[in-house]
Amino acid sequence: MITSTTNPQPADFADVRATNLAVVLRFVREHAPCSRADIAASTGLNKATVSSLVADLIDRRLVRETGLTENRVGRPATMLVLDGSPYAAIGIEINVDYVTAVAVDLSGERLLSWRRSFSGAAGAPGSGTADVPGSRGSGTAEVPGAGGAAGPPGPSGPAGSVGQAVGTVAAIVRRVVGRMAKQERQVLGLTVGVPGLVGTDGTVLVAPNLGWRDADLAGDLAKALRDPGFPVQVDNDANLAALAEHRFGAQAGTADLVYLTGEIGVGAGVILDGRLRRGGRGYGGEIGHIQLDPLGPECRCGRTGCLEAVAGIGAVLRHAPLSPAEVEVELEEVVRLARAGDPETLALLSGVGRQLGKGVSVVTNLLNPQVVILGGYYVPLAPWLLPAVEEETRGRTIAPDGGGCRVVASTLGYDAAALGGAARVLDSVDSGRLPRVS
Amino acid sequence: MITSTTNPQPADFADVRATNLAVVLRFVREHAPCSRADIAASTGLNKATVSSLVADLIDRRLVRETGLTENRVGRPATMLVLDGSPYAAIGIEINVDYVTAVAVDLSGERLLSWRRSFSGAAGAPGSGTADVPGSRGSGTAEVPGAGGAAGPPGPSGPAGSVGQAVGTVAAIVRRVVGRMAKQERQVLGLTVGVPGLVGTDGTVLVAPNLGWRDADLAGDLAKALRDPGFPVQVDNDANLAALAEHRFGAQAGTADLVYLTGEIGVGAGVILDGRLRRGGRGYGGEIGHIQLDPLGPECRCGRTGCLEAVAGIGAVLRHAPLSPAEVEVELEEVVRLARAGDPETLALLSGVGRQLGKGVSVVTNLLNPQVVILGGYYVPLAPWLLPAVEEETRGRTIAPDGGGCRVVASTLGYDAAALGGAARVLDSVDSGRLPRVS
């Protein structure tokens, strides 16, 4: 089966059976428990085809029969449900000072969630720090030596830095895979999120805060894992967070959704018509360096008045740049003051909210999403930011009522990007990349 | 058949046969002449199914056999090509002072192209001019009475204004349909482009320069045409121009493409992953009122420093506001001065180009398209605007080399939106809305 929103490209002419399997699988997830007749009626596939597809999905242990039958006139029908038990999808987020790992089953149940400290920050200026500063993503602090003081210095240059990350991530993945093996689960795939520009082929063009450039992280990881038997993919962290919101978040299923990371850097993940839109080379979502005010403060990127300079978390804190740990401490103090009604703090947050609203209005005018989700450090500040964000967004959007767009805080916490990595693996299954019969 | 980029929504579970027919039809358009075996091999559909689908397409006169056979080992195969001759798609653009109509056949051949003057401008302030000013689209001049002097004044209020347009357009459509009937062509559908906010259901929420609000133009037109027997749709003119570029333009087939209208108003049509992205309610593409400079000149919308205030055609001309006819006269003078190397004119165009580049960089950072196409009045000015646009875009885009985005002038001329109306009809056919067997 089929979508009527297909565009006429050769890629469309894919393997029909694989796609029909995926269609039936999706139908079962959305409508379980359901019968083979239900599937045939709703998909337009004929009953013999549906029976054959369902048999295949049962062989692959993706779907199982419940034994229950539907209560209706005529011959009783065996009901089908998703069989999540034999599989797991893994998502990893690499950031400047930590690595997060999650695993979920086919239905999205969380199987594990780990965080491990990691000294991945780019070294002192000159030691391989890429020269495209300030790319989106959770680009926490470009402080010389941030995080690096406690960790091993690592070889100079990007390659060394990547090598260190590959070793750390591979070790974590091996532990996750081991844990899954104990549960007799097969790993369907792994997606790693990185704060930087990631091409459509998965190459990390540049990750400024990690000091990486032109890194084939997926290839290196697959090698380190000695051909793990599952696909390894790499993506931008804001993209993955958007996928996580679209599949697991409070706004799950919203067709037009934009996620904004709230860190020292600000990045966007753009979902339109139900799918992530990366742009031609995969470098979309770089909202952080859209100039909101030519006379505004200087940005890390060397320009002035960029969104992240006037509305990133750095605009909220008194002392910048800071290490991520220091950011969290100072953020708690800001929240405490706001709760206590400190007028200066409230005015500051309202001002940052207005600037952020100006940035959000770029999105509402250009893309008209149904919802914009604020993530990262914006979440604890949301009670004080949101009123100003919403007022400014409405005032600056040509369509009445902000084009119907709501602005909300993420409910996924700091795991969002890692969860999105797992979501991307599940999306692959939905698109027809099914596990082989074991 | 199928795409592997389907998203899991109930809408996917459409009629399989209709979609498979469309898949075969698209394959024939892209690969003609081709055999049934070629189709089966590439689509994964089995040969019996392909034979049945092709027979259906031949019955519908969408595909025909050439009589030629492929030169190869084994049984000779009859070759198939598109049969465009029995059909036509109609596109109409309504603007402040003219209505444009085009008709094309199934393969996109232009069958006719008409332009007719039309006094559709909103009346004097207060006579029904909608209060959401400056929506994107070819919003040429909000001059009180522009064009209205020569035309009938029309009843006061939006309804009257819409009624006048419906009468004019219906008359034109009847003539086009008559012409097509003489060629024994069946009309597959009609799409009307309007400069304003058009909802996903086709309702014109507001078209400021026409003075319309909440207009059911499609419904009114269908009534005026007394149930014409083909679908009537309405869309934003920038959206349609983007569709025209995607199907007929020099950049046809580019998956990620943004079209910018260059009029007094500036609007965008956004194509990502091969399809128009309208946003949740259809109000995306409103790039004209993104603020580029808070201290910039006042905009028609009441804010300051909007893209269209600093980089719309009004920023190039000395006298504003002007009627569209006056704009063209003054534009010719600007082109003449630029050609003559007049320093003041060159500096002016370079400055406008820089501002426009700033706006384009919002698009390249957020969406990373492969190409941005400048339309409307930007086209004659392109030789002088483009260098500054490109330099500014590159300088402001975080991804190196502007993310690979080229900025080019449209080659479709002033017919772009009307052509896009016809393109949208052909897109419907591609998506499975095939003509019935007559």
UniProtKB/TrEMBL annotation, chains A, B:
Residues 121-162 are annotated as: Disordered. Residues 24-65 form the HTH marR-type domain. This is ROK family protein. InterPro entries: ATPase_NBD, HTH_MarR-typ, ROK, WH-like_DNA-bd_sf, WH_DNA-bd_sf. It comes from the Bacteria. It holds the Pfam family MarR_2. Residues 121-130 have a biased composition (Low complexity). Belongs to the ROK (NagC/XylR) family. It comes from Planomonospora alba.
